[in-house]
Design brief:
single chain; about 425 residues; alpha/beta; 8-stranded mixed beta sheet; 5-stranded parallel beta sheet; 16 strands; about 40% helix
């Protein structure tokens, strides 16, 4: 697999749709917590039921692996890491109830989760008020980069702003000069399109941005506009059945992926994409190119350990959860206590600027020697920024083959320019 690295200025923009998880009572949650007792309790807030369970299963297995390794290394500041688990599920109301249990009943110090951006966006105020340091492995929405959380929320996966930059780079790598990107007329779509436009301009290229109404059934008009002027590559920002209908409209306009290079975002990374595009032609996804956060870990040692810990289990995105646990644990180790403000203050410090190390045991050993550390995650180099986002993220660019399966990907690493 080829590796391509680019550097670009980036900030997590606005625009991801926000759903409040509940009519929160954060003051009550914060005042009732009595958990500064010298021992770290980890709350695991990931989906084990509902539509998110497929994603949650490998994340939970990775958390279990990381906790076991930490405790085998002697725990955090001499105390074994305690764990409380609550099911995020797939409904905002039940997700909030699970969070309430972690904060009020279990009195957790730090949290891994949630998996969903929608759930995370609705919980930021509660997490900040409760002073619960939280790391999400898979929430990528733009708005999560803002400081509504007072620094108590971080993530190990790259933001959608970086994904937009990766999509732009992949399209330009085609060597063409006329580009179009179709995007939904919603907060997510406009924010994504804005980042795409800025990146095209930064790379001295032009792009036609064409919005489509995701509530409609037909997209002939937007597709005709996107295909005007002999466009040479097209991108589709979307997900599920709606995104698939946009792709079908492209094919019906005599622009199937075998004739026009077609790129899609991670929401269309689906095994059944061909059937969604055309139920009569399950191979309709052949040739479509996907730009998505890297699913497999960068660290082969983690992948091997995961295979032993979860025989036959999917490893998809598990590395990000594993990194969340180690990041939180090492921040607590560096802080020397379970004080929330101390842990929060150490998150950036343990992920950048010091001696490079992998895994809790090796990094904790360096901390005991009085050295600064730079945690190298199983998902890649973290380099947390002031906004709680990682400083670089790796994306897979691949095409679906004739059977609708993913071909071997090229890796594109996007780095944030700290300037």
């Amino acid at each position: 697999m080829a590796a391509l690295i680019i550097t670009a200025a980036c900030s997590a923009g606005n625009g991801a749709a926000t759903t409040t998880v509940a009519p929160a009572s954060p003051d009550t949650v914060a005042s009732n917590r009595r958990n500064v007792d010298g021992r770290i309790r980890l709350g695991v807030w990931l989906p084990s039921s509902g539509i998110g369970a497929t994603l949650g299963t490998p994340l939970l297995a990775a958390v279990e692996l990381a906790v076991r390794e930490i405790n085998e290394a002697g725990g955090i500041n001499g105390e074994l890491l305690d764990v409380a688990i609550a099911d995020e599920g797939s409904d905002p109301a039940t997700a909030y109830q699970a969070l309430t249990e972690l904060l009020e009943s279990d009195q957790v110090d730090v949290i891994v989760g949630p998996a969903s951006s929608r759930i995370a966006l609705g919980a930021l105020d509660v997490l900040a008020e409760a002073r619960a340091v939280t790391c999400s492995p898979t929430s990528a929405a733009y708005d999560l980069g803002e400081r509504r959380d007072d620094g108590y929320f971080v993530r190990t996966i790259g933001s959608e702003a970086l994904e937009a930059m990766a999509l732009t780079k992949a399209m330009i790598e085609e060597g063409t000069t006329r580009f179009s990107v179709l995007f939904p007329e919603d907060d997510y779509g406009f924010a994504f399109a804005d980042q795409v436009q800025r990146e095209f301009r930064r790379l001295r290229q032009e792009v036609r941005l064409v919005p489509y109404d995701p509530t409609q059934e037909q997209f002939n008009g937007p597709v005709e506009l996107a295909l005007a002027d002999e466009v040479e590559a097209v991108g589709v920002v979307g997900s599920g059945a709606v995104g698939a209908r946009v792709l079908r409209a492209l094919a019906l306009q005599d622009a199937p992926p075998e004739r026009l290079p077609t790129f899609v975002t991670h929401g269309l990374r689906r095994d059944d994409l061909g059937e969604l595009i055309d139920p009569r032609q399950p191979t309709a996804s052949a040739g479509i190119r996907v730009v998505a956060p890297m699913a497999r870990p960068m660290d082969p040692k983690f992948e091997a350990a995961f295979a032993v810990a979860a025989p036959g289990g999917r490893v998809a995105y598990a590395a990000y959860a594993y990194d969340c646990v180690n990041l939180l644990a090492l921040a607590a180790q560096a802080a020397g206590s379970d004080d929330a403000e101390g842990i929060r203050a150490q998150l950036t410090a343990v992920s950048s600027g010091g001696s490079r190390c992998r895994g809790f045991a090796d990094c904790a050993r360096l901390l005991e020697q009085g050295r600064n550390i730079d945690l190298e995650g199983a998902s890649g180099d973290l380099e947390l920024q002031d906004d709680g986002d990682v400083g670089e993220a790796t994306y897979e660019v691949f095409a679906f083959d004739e059977e609708g399966k993913e071909e071997p990907p090229e890796l594109v690493t996007i780095r944030v320019d700290s300037d």
